[in-house]
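Quick one: structure tokens for this chain, please?
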Amino acid sequence: DKVLAELIEPYELRAAKLREFLEDVKPSLRYDIVPLADPFGPSVTDPDLQCLVVSEETRRGGVAVNKKRLENGLPELALYEILLMKDPDHSQNEEEKISSSSLRQRLLGTLLRPPRRDPALPSHPYVIGLTGGTGSGKTSIAKLLGHLGAFLIDADKLGHAVYVPGGPAYERVVATFGAEILSEDGTINRRVLGAKVFGNQEQLKRLTDIVWPEMARMVKEQIREADAQG
């Protein structure tokens, strides 16, 4: 459950940095760097260990280690608690201590390596589909992409455009679902239409079979427009 686990450095690199730090602090120090394949590692099996360094938030883990050692017939470790350094630059959404999770969050939006040229991808336009439920952030992400220079195609707006009088799906929708779906001004009353199709899979499919191909055609037209604009 680490924050942004994808940005955690490889074990070999982390171990090399730790080794460099230990040798810099005290070259004569004896140490053993062990990869942890489980929550406890060698702390519950090594009879030569005498002390475990913990922080306020990991003390409970130290207690769990001693419980496991007693179950394994080993003496308890002395728990030596240290204070963690505060991060003077932490933001409101970050941990107060110096934390690798905070550092990884700060990497969001930065280019970690040059973009890879993939001959299988078209040079342009490069099409990204943005999808998600209500309130998932589609509009916010679209705005960010727009600020970066993306050409935005709003499928919701196209969905409304196909219904308007003179729109590509207007006459077929009215012919299929009847004049009772029309408002006094001749526009399609989406609430009345929705009552006819939602909850009725057959009717919903009749509607989408009319509307979706027209929306797809309009999307392709806008993609060509984006291509023309470079």
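The CA atoms of residues 49 and 77 lie 7 Å apart.
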